[in-house]
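Follow-up to my post from last week.
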Amino acid sequence: MNFKELAKNLDLEESEYRDLVNLFLKTSKENMSLLEASVEQSNAGNTADNAHRIKGAALNLELKEIGALAKDMEGRARNGSVGECAAILPKLKNELNQLVKLAEE
Amino acid sequence: MAKENVQTSKIQSFPILIVEDDPATRKMLKISLRKAGHTVTLAENGRQALELYEKEFFPIVLTDWMMPEINGLELCRRLRTNDFPGYVYIIILTAKDSKESIISGLDAGADDYITKPFHSAELQVRLKTAIRILEMEKDFKMANEKIRTLSITDPLTGCYNRAYISERLPKEIKKARRYQHPLSVVMCDLDHFKKVNDEYGHHIGDCLLKEFVNSTLESIRDDTDWLARYGGEEFLIVAPETDYRGAYLMAERLRTGICRESVKIEQHQILYTASFGISGFLPSMKDLKVSPEMLIGKADEYLYKCKQQGRNLVIAGEL
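User reply:
Got it. Predicted complex:
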């Protein structure tokens, strides 16, 4: 993942893009807690909505892996297969952790 | 360069309200739109957007769908039920991309729909469309206002016309009756006007009518009284909050002002006079069913008396 490249794709300066990523990470922290809780409670509606939130913001920033995982979770939750989301959660967490490291560089 | 300036000013005259609960997306939209020259205001959800609308008007709204408190769809519905000074062009920006979602969004009153992730260039062209439509609406409104003005204006003198009397006088009577306030109408007629036309030609006659209108407009109150051309050389002054005695003083001032000195029209020095018949509604007449025809008819009767008594006169009386 190259921030300079991603920023360019979005017609942004790299510094602007980094600011947005940091803002995304800050919000995602809260959204991830909500997502984990809703998966744990097998609440399909909340799982779909929380995943939807992460998906929208991630895809806008061209964070494709995070967006794809959140999209997958949203789709499964909307289809009533909220149980399958538990297996995706660690992958999503991992992607977010990688992004944190990248943002810190 | 000049073309760019025009484009920028066009863009800036249509401020955009961004309604988005996700901070990163909100900021990204703000950066992208400001870079393109747009004036942008931010709201975190539909409730905040509606609160902002109470203070300021935004012709363009770019709203997310899923938001806490009031979501994008509900915001669309509420904006459509409001009476704003202009059209609000609403674009829904959402990650919901199914046909059903698009239909629901447009059905709630949105004008356009952009799916996330949004593409900056796509957003710009969609906004261009919005501005084009809002510009058309603005032109249409201006044209309508122009037509409206033309429909109630006498083309020769620039004062109101007979159509305006028919529209406004019943309202003035209703208001005077409801609040039990006086109301007077003054029927004015330029004496021997036919002679002016015969002697100097119609062009000079027309100029004299304009002179009369200008003198009258200077004599009546700007904010309450109004003047309309009744037909030919006859005019009607409507004076709300004025009883016929007050209207008499006003007409007498106008009459003496007119006959005191001649007016110069092109190479001619013309001395003319006018006659005035006045009738009025008084608060004590609240049970009397007053119509515009009654008021004007009575004023016309007094005007006729002026003519019988030698013209250049003001006669006023009760209904």
